[in-house]
Design brief:
The complex is a heterodimer of chains A (about 500) and B (about 90).
Chain A (H helix, E strand, L loop, with lengths): L8 H10 L4 H19 L2 E4 L1 H16 L11 E5 L26 H8 L3 E6 L33 H8 L5 E6 L5 H7 L2 E4 L19 E6 L2 H11 L17 H8 L8 E5 L9 H16 L3 E5 L7 H16 L20 H12 L2 H13 L6 H21 L5 E5 L15 H5 L6 H6 L3 E9 L2 E8 L5 H15 L16
Parallel strand pairs in A: 2-3, 2-4, 7-8, 7-9
Antiparallel strand pairs in A: 1-3, 4-6, 5-6, 5-10, 9-11, 10-11
Helix pairs in contact in A: 2-3, 7-8, 8-16, 10-12, 10-13
Chain B lengths: L8 H18 L34 H5 L5 E2 L2 E2 L10
Antiparallel strand pairs in B: 1-2
Classes of the chains: A alpha/beta (about 500), B mainly alpha (about 90).
């Protein structure tokens, strides 16, 4: 057992359960690789060496006692820093929370710990999950392991880079407008945004509450499904949690891996492609559609005319909700306080604290949202965006009468250079063109690697109706089985032997 | 003012131009004929959620106050709210 960091989560769990390797050895191998390479990737904001080794030891002790292990026991995981973790610093990529240590666990943190999954640390992200490149982190950008001069996508860029760089086989991200799928696509890994309400939001630092959804990253579809089943399920602590059985995503991934899509109707969304998309991305996507046809899928074209308004609707709804959610950062109960000199009044201290604590993108969105919600503009902006949201949901409903899943590229282009799009917010926002509709509709969608363009990974997005997350996994697994891996250690720009 | 951000004049210059462009782009929602379309606030049907009225332990006070910027007598200390007249 020499290359523990290149193993899949499923294989690691199997080896730990069989006693072929200890969870501690697995954790140590990943911690060593992080120590050697994360200086150049910067996927992690905080590495919890002691906590990881303790969690691994607990799995080994349980195994030694003869007790049965849960399906991912002993497998390391990287946690996005927007998810609160008791006793571990949590910043959401913001200066305003620098040094804050949460007094409680998010539901998904608790579930991961209870499953014996070994949390290695907290990953870098765009501040409060606002961004598509991880450049909006207050603690510096994350570098794409395929090319260190390029971004890993965002906002869950640290999580995606950790998985792509073999620093962790699994990671948790959150997706508000594409923040799992887009970084998964541009780093060559698998990432799934579950149905809204399928995974508890309790303990997620809120950005846009009607859109935020946590989900899994893995290097294979099966690994991603295994993690999905750990974190999904009803939670009384989240008022929008869906009280329904978890979709059978692991069974679907295993069924899909047989490589048969006969009887599956795949709808190609006409509006997600064409102008503004990189030719290499379109070429990889078209090959992917052909491959699905070869696997027996019936490919049809569907039209979703309101998807072209998704970007406009999203950049009204998300900033509106963010301006309200981020009001809690007032320098009173946690985090930074600036300007409390005894003379300044509360409101002045709040304004100075928020000015010093928030980065540019967060400020822009708070101002935009405050404006869109203000009296006189509310109907034309926020109200109208909510109506467009209804029409996008209807587009999905109509399309799913003709297709079991919908497909598109996950992103219009491959990973771009660090610094390239920072001066122009709209150039950044169009990264989310393909992922926004499913966010607004609350429907599940997965990104699975589907080839290369200019030597960099391209993602295929598979979208399904609400609560039918298993369809995403089945189609993605069939595609993965037929095409083979896109990611491999020798394709990365980071050195360091795998062990 | 509502946003409670003490932005600098340099920032204002930068943001004003950028927000103009963004507002121009998001105003596209107005092109959609949606007068009789109901708004969607949440993708899932929102119903009131109740839980049994049972006592449960809350977080320990020290653990919560440990993250606060300023604490006095086991409470959050806040800057003064009213202007003193004197």
């Amino acid at each position: 057992m020499t290359d523990l960091t290149s193993m899949t989560a499923a294989d690691i769990a199997g080896a730990v359960a069989a006693g072929d390797v200890s969870a501690r050895e697995v954790a140590q191998a990943h911690l060593d690789r992080i120590a050697a390479l994360d200086g150049s990737v910067h996927a992690f904001l905080h590495v919890d060496v002691d906590g990881a080794l303790q969690a691994a030891d607990a799995v080994d002790a349980k195994h030694a006692s003869g007790a049965a292990l849960s399906p991912l026991a002993g497998v390391p995981l990287a946690m996005k820093d927007v998810v609160v973790t008791e006793g571990l610093p949590t910043t959401a990529g913001s200066k305003i929370l620098n040094g804050w240590v949460p007094p409680y666990d998010a539901t998904i943190s608790r579930r991961i710990k209870d499953a014996g999954v070994v949390m290695l640390g907290k990953t870098n992200m765009d501040e409060f999950a606002m961004g598509s490149s991880t450049e909006n982190s207050a603690f510096g950008p994350t570098h794409n392991p395929w090319d260190l001069q390029r971004v890993p996508g965002g906002s869950s860029g640290g999580s995606a880079a950790a998985v792509a760089g073999y620093l962790a086989p699994l990671a948790i991200g959150t997706d508000t407008g594409g923040s799992i799928r887009q970084p998964a696509a541009v780093t060559g890994v698998v990432g799934h945004k579950p149905t809204y309400g399928a995974v508890s939001r309790y303990g997620l630092i809120a950005f846009s509450s009607s859109l935020d959804q946590a989900g899994p990253f893995g290097r294979t579809v099966l690994d991603t499904a295994l993690l999905h089943e750990v974190i999904a399920g009803y939670d009384a602590c989240d008022s929008t949690s869906i009280d329904a059985p978890v979709a059978p995503v692991v069974a679907a991934a295993r069924e899909g891996a047989r490589g048969d899509l006969s009887g599956v109707r795949v709808g190609v969304v006409r509006e997600l492609g064409g102008e503004g998309y990189q030719p290499g991305v379109i070429a990889a996507f078209e090959l992917a559609v052909n491959r699905m046809r070869e696997l027996g899928a019936e490919v049809v074209e569907v039209s979703c005319p309101h998807f072209q308004y998704a970007l406009a609707a999203y950049y009204l709804i998300a900033p509106s909700e963010c301006s309200s959610n981020l009001a809690r950062f007032d320098g009173v109960r946690y985090g930074l306080r600036v300007g409390d000199d005894g003379a300044n009044e509360l409101e002045t201290v709040m304004s100075l604290t928020r000015e010093a604590g928030f980065g540019a993108e967060v400020k822009r969105r708070i101002m935009l949202g405050t404006y869109a919600l203000s009296s006189g503009y509310y109907e034309a902006y926020y109200g109208q965006a909510q109506k467009v949201r209804t029409l996008i949901q209807r587009d999905f409903a109509t399309s799913f009468e003709h297709a079991d899943v919908l497909v598109s590229p996950s992103t219009p282009f491959v990973a771009f250079g660090i610094g390239e799009r920072m001066a122009d917010p709209m150039a950044m926002y169009i990264n989310d063109l393909c992922t926004l509709p499913a966010s607004l509709a609350g429907t599940p969608a997965i990104s699975v690697p589907c080839g290369l363009s200019e030597g960099l990974p391209v993602g295929l997005q598979v979208m399904a109706p609400a609560l039918a997350d298993d369809r995403c996994y089945r189609v993605a697994a069939a595609f993965e089985a037929a095409t083979g891996p896109v990611l491999s250690p020798d394709r990365l720009a980071i050195a360091g032997g795998l062990r | 003012m509502l946003a409670r951000l003490a932005v600098t004049s340099d920032e204002l210059d930068l943001f004003a131009g950028q927000l103009d462009v963004i507002l121009g782009a998001v105003a596209r929602v107005g092109e959609v004929a949606a007068a009789d379309i109901p708004p969607t606030s949440h993708a899932v049907a929102m119903t009131n959620v109740l839980r049994p009225d049972e006592e449960r332990p809350c977080l320990p006070r020290e653990a919560v106050l440990a993250g606060a910027p300023d604490v006095e007598d086991g409470k959050f200390r806040v800057p003064r709210i009213l202007t003193e007249e004197a």
